Amino acid sequence: MVGSVDRLVTDIDAVAQPVAQSIIGFATMQTELSALADGVAAGRGHLAMAETRTQSILSISEDFMLFPVESDFQTADGLYIALARAKAAQIAALFIDATATGKISMANLFDHSYCEVRDSDPKQVMTRFIAFTDRALPALQEPVLAFDQRIACCAAVDRNGYLPTHNAIYSHLQGSDPIWNAANCCNRRIFNDRTALSAERSTKPFLLQTYWRNIGGSKFALMKDCSAPITVNGRHWDRLRLAFKA
């Protein structure tokens, strides 16, 4: 019996030793994982700081673009800036005339009660001015695409980034593939990315931005976005956005 107990104790010691080593190993791994988590958190903080600084640099460069254009100095993007401002002025005049002649009321033109389109993906919404913009805007927006082969799109957006009536090539009916929809069904959608938000919040005569545009299938293209304000009877409806290849 004593011999059996001794062998049992020996066996237990033999099992206990690797368990103890595993516990030490797990403790070491936990310490290393904690250090890794701290490093990731610190890296996230540095990235956030870098993003803030990058956005500040972008804002400064965008403000700087105002000076040569307003001084009538010709730049490589001058033609696109002039085109965006001219189209914005035409759309503003169209809206003003429409409200004066009863084609649409100011209340409906500035309607922001967005009603979601059922089963849409990405989400599309409707407002009371959709029928009007669908009739009125294509005649002004579509010809812009033929101005230059670098121009990708031209559309008016309201102050919340809502794009009611897009160019025909981006206004297809949605299908079952949300990735295809994202690239080909861009009308009736609210855009709140950095470029869109900067355009919406701007009250400058124009704003020129550079950004990466999602063209579908995880592909991106470097673009420039020029926007100009649309003001109707003293109220800021929002902006005309013109996107062209950088």
Task: Summarize this entry quickly.
The protein has helices at residues 2-64, 66-70, 78-100, 106-109, 130-136, 138-141, 178-184, 194-201; strands at residues 115-116, 125-126, 151-158, 162-163, 189-190, 207-216, 219-232, 235-245. The longest helix is centred in the N-terminal third of the chain and has 63 residues, at 2-64. The chain is α+β, with helices and mostly antiparallel strands and 246 residues long.
What this model shows, in words?
The protein is α+β, with helices and mostly antiparallel strands and 246 residues long. The protein has helices at residues 2-64, 66-70, 78-100, 106-109, 130-136, 138-141, 178-184, 194-201, and strands spanning 115-116, 125-126, 151-158, 162-163, 189-190, 207-216, 219-232, 235-245. A four-stranded antiparallel beta sheet has the order 3-8-7-6, sandwiched between helices. A two-stranded antiparallel ribbon has the order 1-2. It has two domains: 2-63; 67-245, Beta-Lactamase. It is built from eight helices and eight strands.
Question: How would you summarize the topology of this molecule?
Answer:
Blueprint: H1 2-64, H2 66-70, H3 78-100, H4 106-109, E1 115-116, E2 125-126, H5 130-136, H6 138-141, E3 151-158, E4 162-163, H7 178-184, E5 189-190, H8 194-201, E6 207-216, E7 219-232, E8 235-245
Antiparallel strand pairs: 1-2, 3-8, 4-5, 6-7, 7-8
